[in-house]
Amino acid sequence: MSTENPKAPEKLFESINAESKRLMQGMIRSEDTAEIASNLASLWSQLVMHSWTNPQSWLEMVNQYQKDQFKLWNDLIHGTVDSRPPKDRRFDSDEWSKLPVFDFIKQSYLLTADALSKSTDAIPLDEKEKKRVKFYTQYFIDAMSPSNFVNLNPDVITEAMRTNGQSLIDGMQNLMSDLEKGRITMTDESAFTLGENIGVSEGSVVFRNHLFELVQYEPTTETVHQRPLLIVPPCINKFYILDLQPQNSYVKWCVDQGNTVFLISWANTTPEYSHIGWDDYVQDGIFEAIRVVKEITSEKKLNAVAWCIGGTILASALAVMQKKRDSSIGSTTLLTTLLDFSEPGDLGVFLNEEEVNMRAVQIEKDGVMSGKNLSLGFNLIRSNDLIWSYVVNNYLKGKTPPPFDLLYWNSDPTNLPATMYNTYVSEMYVKNNLAKPRGFICCGSPVELNKIKTPMYFLSAIDDHIAPWKSTFSGTELVGGHLEFVLGGSGHIAGVINPPEKNKRNYWTSGELGHGPDHWLESATNNLGSWWTHWHKWLEGQNARQVPARQIETVGDYKEIVPAPGDYVRVRL
Are the C-beta atoms of 556 and 530 separated by less than 8 Å? Predict the structure, then answer.
C-alpha cells in the first residue's frame, strides 16, 4: 500500500477496512474467533427455530420493522426525517444529521438494532441462555454500527477531507503499530514509566519466591499501628492499580494513615508454571507472605486486604487457617470479591459448561491462560466503550488517545497458570463449590466458610459488572464473625480507587444484614465521598495500639532485594 499521495484519501478507505479485519484477527486467536462465530450462529439458529414455532409474533415484529423502515425512507424523500440525535455517543456529532444520507444510515441502523434486540426477548429460554443470546446479538449489533466503517462515518470523512487524507495515513500507522502489539492502544503509553511516574510509592522488595515478590513500603509517620497491613491484589492483573500515582494511590494513602504496609506482587507466569494450582497460591503465596510479615514485624497478628480473585484466594486460605487454629489474620477486608458465584453477572455468558471444558483443553495445551485473551474477554463485555470507540478514534480518525494511568494499567495484563485458572473457573464459576460447605478442597482441607470467625469488611461497587454487588453481598451470608458491608458508587475499578482528597462519588453503610441485598440497601445510609476513611476507622477499631514506625531492614534476611515496585511487575506480555 502506498501512502505517498495524501491528497487522495479515498484510496485509503479500502485499505483501512481490510486492515481493520486483519487487526481483529491478530488480537483474537483463530479458535476464539471461531468460538464467537459458532456461538452467534448457534444462538441465532434458536431465533430462527422460534420463528417457526411462534410464527405470528415473529411476523408481527417483521411487519412492524418493515413499516418503520418504509416510513424512514419516505421521510428521507420528503425531507421530514426526525434528526433529533439519539442518546448514543457514537452519533453525538452534528455530522450525522447534516446530510440526509447519513441521517438515514444512522436511523436505519438504530431501527435494525432495536428490532434485533427485541427479537431476543421473545425466545422461550431459561435466564442464563437468554443472557447468552442477548450478549452475542448485542456484540454483533455493536460490531456492525456504521460508525465503525470508514466510508459510512461522516465524522471520519470530514476529518479526512480537513487533513487532506493525513488522518487516514495516521490511522493506518496506528493500526499497523497495534497489529505488532496484538492489542488496541487505549492510552498514550509513552507517557508512563513504571517506577518513575506510576507505581512510585517508596519501598523495597524484601522477599521473593517463584510465585510472588513481597514489597514493604517506607513509613511516612513516626508511629504506626501495631498490626501490619498485608495487601493481596488480584493475580489476574498487576498490583499497581493500587499504586497508580501519588494522588490516587491506595498504597500511599494507607502508609500515610500510619500503617506498615506489605504487598504481594504476583509473578506474570509462563508455560513453565502450568502445573501451579490454587493450593500453590494459598500455600506458597498467602501463607508465605503471612510468615514473612510476622517475622519482619515480630507481631502475632496482621490485617489483610484483598481485591477480586485475591479475596477469593484469601477466603479459601482463611478457611484452611481456621482448621489449623491459626489466627494470624486479625481482620480481613474483601474488595469486590465473589465468594458465591451463582450469579456471576456479565461474565456468565462465557461460562457455559461445554465451552468451559473445551477452552480448558486448549489452556492446558498452552500452559497458561493468556492475559491478553482475559483482557479481551473483559473488553468484549463493554465493546462499544473498550473496543469500537478506540477503533474509530485511533484507526479511522488517526488520533492518539490521551494519557490515562488507569488505561495504561489496563493494557498491562498478566497470564495465569493453566491448572490454577481451570480450577478457578470450574470449581468457582461453574460448580460454585466454594459456597458449598465442604464443597471445595484447599490444601487438603474441605473449605467451610461459615467456620471463619475473622472480622470482615466487605466493599462492593453498585455498578460492578465483573463482581455484581448483590452477588458479593451473598458472601456476608456465607461467613461467620463480625461483618461490615459497604457499597461504593461506580464500578469494579473506580468504585475501589476513590481517594478522599477528590471528594467524589458516594458510598452506603449501616444497612441491616441478614435479609438480602435489596433490604440492606433500603435500610442503608448514603454518604458522600470516599469509603476509604470509613474503612480505616473500622480498621482502627480492630486494634488501635501504636508502635514506633518500622524501617526497612538494611541487614539480615529481609533487607532490600530491589527497590519497589520490584522486578515481577515489570514483566510485560
Answer: no
